[in-house]
Structure prediction request, 623 residues.
Amino acid sequence: MTDNETAPPLLPHIPDGHVISGALGGLVHVPDGWSWKTFDDIEGIGRYIEGGRALDPGEQEVHVSPEGTWTELFASWAPDPDGHKVRLPGSGTWTDVIGRTGGLALRAASPATRPERREVVLRFLEMWAGTPFADPAYRYRVGRLAGPVSFNARDHHGASFGLHLPGARRTLYFEALLPGGEAAPRPEEPVHVVDCPHAWGTPEQLRRLVELVRERGPVAWDADAVIALSEATGLSRPAAALVLAGNPGSGTYYLPYLDQHERTVLGFKNGELDSAREELVMLGDVGRSALLADVMPEDPADLWEPGGLAHVAGRTATAWAQQRGARPAPPWSTWQAAVALGTRMPAAHLCHLFLDPTNSAVPPGFRPAVPLGPVERRGPQSPWDVTARYEADFLVDAVFAGLAWAYADLPAGDPVREGMPEVVRHLRELLVAGDAAAGFLHESMARYSGGNRRSDWLTDGPCDRITARVAAGELPTGRYESDPRACAPDVVADVAATLGLPEDAATLYLQLLLLSAPSDRNVRRWNAWTPARHKKAAAELTARALVVEDRRARSGRTLFLPGPWAHAKKPLPPMETWKAPLIGAQLKFSGDEVWTFELLPDTLPALFTEAWRLVRGGEGPVA
Prediction:
């Protein structure tokens, strides 16, 4: 394309900038105003840089705009070899792509990339291959200028630029140099200058990749490679799939994020992919492109060979470990349960807090109080370092929801559940530290609707008894605390004998009496029941009029205790009002809506015992 040409539209009635952003987003920051013309502008900058080779030694071209705008600077720039004026497009964000085209190449070849976006990526890579930005003979550096000055300069060694946009907080500095060269003159010395990487993506590799995709179509998807990447890095499986597909759509701000074709290829549900997307937000565009910068095979044709995507997964796992540090991977079913829990923290990071409490990195959603500069990078920090002034609310909300979840809703032997006592230890250490960290955490806890209930619970008997049960391993491996046969068999036997019920029916009755969310799916999971076995136990309770049959929103069941019902807004569970005080749930003044529920007032064996004592003493639920 040239300045006088525009690419044909890929989608009718959709602005070109949106199509480009959707295609490149997550690996390239695409500001407002990008269009097919931006591709021409990048090519123009490349021609301007290469034109410096024709200058005689000592000859220089320097143009400065002290007002800090580009208007008069555009007109003053010397024409490139084709006679066109050049300009620095897109706020300079395209410079982040230098040495980091591997992710775009992977996205272009992925079967999970929708066709119109694949075409945009291919056009971009074709353009890039024809510029000096893909030429390893050049060295590129990016930094900042302190003053609001715009300039461009070049000599036979290369070129340098400064871009200041009115109202911007920084001035971009960018230079391109041939080996042995020094930067062309500039009005001031740049700060925070870093070298752009040299990784996969020579002109030959890029052209070959584009040719192969056009000839052969996308590569075959490899679900086993996704699992291998997940297990090697600690990423959830959906997040590993997004990474292996070149993070399709990550970072874009408009819908659809993934269409039906993409979800089908990746093989995961909407909620799982949404959580995975949040899991990867912490990387940012530069982090994602840096992760995938050098994972492509030397010969792009190897992608289409058997095991091609598996080899990419292996190289990606190595890069992840070097750049981010590998984490233990939670069991797949545990991660799915964490997604259903619905905390503001991505499911994978909640699991990591329990899997490796001491070494878990700060999850996304925690934002530094002071924004980082464009070049500064900060390594992963422990989430327990609240003195770093990260949003402790996210941590506290997620951890307290996670404590009850790990105890009651995960099986004995699950590594996330086993980490619960260590998480409690970290929180207690913060609370008694007596420093700014403790004060910050107490402020965070006080914003909870129950005031200081969290801190009281954390330092009181219920927490001790619950964590002691987990630490002691009192449940058989694979069994759930929410199954009274596993944690309170004597109570089950007493219910069965007193009411004349089979063991299964007595078990289900206790679960309905006590548990906040005894949905059909949960009950079958906790009890390892088939639908037929569950149905038989339910029929026994119905025949004895111990329960009523109904359908109620967000309950996931058809059996309920007699008496009033309290509905609830997500993520709180709706429940029978009789059990609310027993399990520590608080209702609104009206009594028909759950206000808050989080902290169990005792272990489940003790609560099962208390629930049955009330029923046996004539204080059970009544219509």
The radius of gyration is 30 Å. Residues 67-86, 363-380, 386-390 have pLDDT under 50 and may be disordered. The chain is about 45% helix and 10% strand.
